[in-house]
Design goal:
The chain is an alpha/beta fold. A 6-stranded mixed β-sheet has the order 6-7-8-3-9-10, with helices on both faces.
Length: about 280
């Protein structure tokens, strides 16, 4: 092979040099469970935020977490994503990846994405640019310096635009989107990194009825290929998407099952309605 041919091969736009590739470690879901949370405890100044909490989520599942303010939902998400370290307990991603041994950046690279309640998009940039920036954030410094989208990456962004329903708005400034569209864009900003597990916090807060319905369709379409955990207060929305609902109370799991099973659970009725059945 000539020197010129060598150079052309190295500079091909559709190739990424092997030492620049970000490879996610394989997540072992041989037992069909992607998230193991066991014996989780965490106290803040004497307040028991998590109290011997156990949670198991299956691979490809769409799970809803509900509970009153202070029940432990956000704290649990903080522990899973490495933002907060528990006093005791274990959190495993698949059979072998101990999340408590990784920081936030590492956990994102492992394939766990988190969306907070308030959308945080780059409003001065286009929808396409937001997705491109998110794609580049998954890379190390060297690839960002050399950053130029490959055909594969462009196809990935187009695919995500279709999934989130913003193909027609690809060149629109993100700041001009509706509240619901901004939420979908932020979900898309996670999807470009192809996460295995998505943590979504109150996705339909402030949405119109039409946007809420579209969000339900979006989240249910994402489950299966990936696992989705949704924290939500809107019970009608939860009913429309959830197969399994986990109720948290005072930092532990109070009940778990279908929406009907949870709503008819004596412990849930007593705690949230203040009366025994």
């Amino acid at each position: 092979m000539s020197t010129l041919t060598d150079v052309r091969e190295v500079m091909r736009r559709d190739q990424v040099w092997s030492f620049l590739k970000d490879e996610q470690p394989q997540v072992d879901v041989s037992h069909d469970v992607i998230l193991y949370v066991e014996g989780l405890n965490l106290s803040f100044d004497g307040f028991k935020a998590l109290n011997d909490l156990n949670l198991y989520v299956n691979d490809g599942e769409l799970r809803c977490l509900i509970g009153a303010n202070g029940a432990g939902k956000t704290t649990l998400m903080d522990v899973i994503t490495g933002k907060t370290t528990p006093d005791s307990g274990t959190v495993y991603f698949g059979q072998s990846l101990n999340l408590l041994q990784h920081d936030e950046a590492d956990i994102a690279q492992l394939g766990i994405g988190r969306k907070f309640q308030k959308p945080t998009v780059f409003e001065a940039h286009s929808v396409f640019d937001n997705l491109e920036l998110s794609l580049k954030q998954q890379k190390t410094v060297m690839p960002m310096l050399l950053a130029r989208l490959t055909p594969t990456e462009i196809d990935r962004i187009d695919e995500v635009l279709n999934v989130i329903g913003l193909k027609e708005q690809r060149f629109m400034q993100a700041g001009a989107l509706s509240h619901g569209q901004k939420q979908w864009l932020e979900i898309g900003m996670l999807l470009v990194a192809e996460p295995r597990l998505l943590l979504i916090d109150e996705p339909v807060a402030g949405m119109t009825a039409q946007e809420t319905e579209r969000t339900a369709e979006l989240l249910t379409s994402l489950a299966g290929e990936r696992t989705v955990i949704v924290v939500e207060h809107d019970m009608e929305f939860v009913r429309s998407i959830a197969r399994t609902v986990t109720v948290l109370h005072q930092g532990t799991v109070l009940a778990e099952g279908t929406m009907d099973q949870v709503q008819n659970n004596p412990d849930v009725i007593e705690v949230y309605l203040g009366e025994a059945p």
